[in-house]
Amino acid sequence: MKKYDIIIIGGSAAGLTAGITVKRHYPEKSVLLIRKEKQVLIPCGIPYIFGTVGSPDKNLIPDAALDKNNIELLVKEVIAINREEKTVSVSDDTIQYDRLILAAGSEPVIPGVPGSDKEGVYAIHKNVDYLNAMQKKVEDAKNIVIIGGGFIGIEFADEVNRLGAKSVTVVEIADHCLNLAYDEEFCIEMEDKVKARGIQLKTSTKVEAIEGNGRVESIRRSDGSALPADLVILGIGAKPNIELAEKSGLRIGRTGAIIVDRTMKTSDDSIFACGDCAKKWAFFGGRPSTLKLASIATLEARIAGANLFGITRENAGTVGVWSTAVGDLAMGTAGLTENAAKAMGYNIVSATIEGPNRHPGGMPGMKKSRLKMVFEFHSGLLLGGQISGDAAAGEVINIISACVQSRMTAEQIAMFQTGTHPALTASPIAYPLVNAAELAIKQMNA
Ligand SMILES: Cc1cc2nc3c(=O)[nH]c(=O)nc-3n(C[C@H](O)[C@H](O)[C@H](O)COP(=O)(O)OP(=O)(O)OC[C@H]3O[C@@H](n4cnc5c(N)ncnc54)[C@H](O)[C@@H]3O)c2cc1C
């Protein structure tokens, strides 16, 4: 029987990063990565297949990193894990491991709404053949309805809308799109942008049924009205892929993910898990989190991969940092929003700075940006931030995430040493991060 020091199940964000990390920390160990798909999609690029990028083939993770890091690849589906024998089985072979990393990811959630199985209803499967077939249907469709107004639903809406000559509608059950990750003013700013680009939004609207004779023809809404639809895209989240883990007797948590500790170890000392299939908990408060992001998956993979033969890294919990963009409007969020912090019981102060992202404002590329920072009232601890503006928002929010992770206070952020330039940033006098902290301090001292 073949034996490897380490077997990794999964070849996407978590699996590949785990493999690279293992080789960085244990270069002498043999590593086999098993994945079921021949070509791996860049998961976050999937919406852009339909417009900007053009096809699934242009949105692939190259296998070069496997060769470069001397990681063997087996393209097969793992059908069983035997924890006593320390083996994994594929259809025609059984292979032994010393350490196993589960990076089996997630599958899209299919709602219990009647008609979800009709022809013309598409969930977002990370599969090249599926997306190729879906792309053809999207191109031919006239009335596209997207169920779910989170960032995936919004990104999909904007991309399919670029194809032109279609009616595109997003249906969202909550009062606002993106409302789990942004406070209302940011949600409204993005909604206005989306509407200005010709996309219809139906918020506070529940889908009761997907109707049609075999194939989808309309969506029935909670107010009884029908929306015509010849293609429906489900963007309502993903559920951890735990079948193998469950069958092998590993512990599964309340959120339906594989239980891991802070070292990413499962209930079996020889098995680690990371990415969408693994349990997550929030950075603030430590409650279970259902957030699933490629950036979280890679962080967890860097922890799991380093810890296989001795603990060196621990997971501090999920800050929840990510960004999205529609046209020239980019938005980012990190940590807690004002709403989320209040709902958890924090006493907070928040400060918002709006202004040009260049100085003077007449410089080319000037765009208005809005930065909101949320602090704990008595300690001044930074709880989170949100930003809207140009593409730089994607990196500014990562700076805010670093401040959150470092448990910085408003006073420390007010003393932040920044670099500024007329063509690149806001003015040093009105630098948003620092000025938001100063405004919050003023409120705390009032
Ligand atoms: C449309 C869309 C847009 C997104 N945009 C973003 C974004 O902008 N930013 C962001 O951070 N995140 C984004 N995400 C989330 C991100 O895609 C996921 O968090 C990420 O893919 C998780 O990576 P993973 O490796 O844990 O799992 P997955 O990507 O689900 O990969 C799982 C891997 O396991 C393999 N596998 C599973 N079971 C078996 C088996 N039995 N045998 C062999 N192989 C198996 C699969 O083949 C696959 O290789 C987006 C997701 C979607 C759907």
Fold and architecture overview:
The protein is an alpha/beta fold. The chain is 26% helix and 27% strand. The strands form seven sheets. Strands 1, 2, 5, 6, 7, 8 and 19 form a seven-stranded mixed β-sheet that branches. The longest helix has 14 residues, at 294-307. The protein starts with a strand and ends with a helix. Flavin-adenine dinucleotide is lined by residues 9-15, 34-37, 40, 43-44, 46-47, 77-78, 103-106, 124, 126, 152, 241, 244, 275-276, 292-295, 297, 322.
Task: Draw up the topology in text.
Layout: E1 3-9, H1 13-25, E2 31-35, E3 40-41, H2 46-49, E4 60-61, H3 64-68, E5 72-75, E6 80-82, E7 87-90, E8 93-102, E9 106-108, E10 121-122, H4 128-140, E11 143-147, H5 151-161, E12 167-171, H6 184-196, E13 200-202, E14 207-211, E15 218-221, E16 226-228, E17 231-234, E18 238-240, H7 243-247, E19 271-273, E20 280-281, E21 288-289, H8 294-307, E22 322-326, E23 329-335, H9 338-344, E24 348-356, E25 368-376, E26 382-389, H10 393-405, H11 410-414, H12 432-445
Tell me how many strands there are: 26
Overall residue-averaged pLDDT value: 97
- Portion of residues in beta strands equals 25-35%
Shape designation: globular
Class by alpha and beta content: alpha/beta
Distance between the termini: 72 Å
Main beta sheet, described?
7 strands, mixed
Low-pLDDT stretches: none
The small molecules bound here are: flavin-adenine dinucleotide
* Alpha plus pi helix count: 12
Radius of gyration using CA atoms only: 23 Å
> How much helix, percentage-wise, in residues?
25-40%
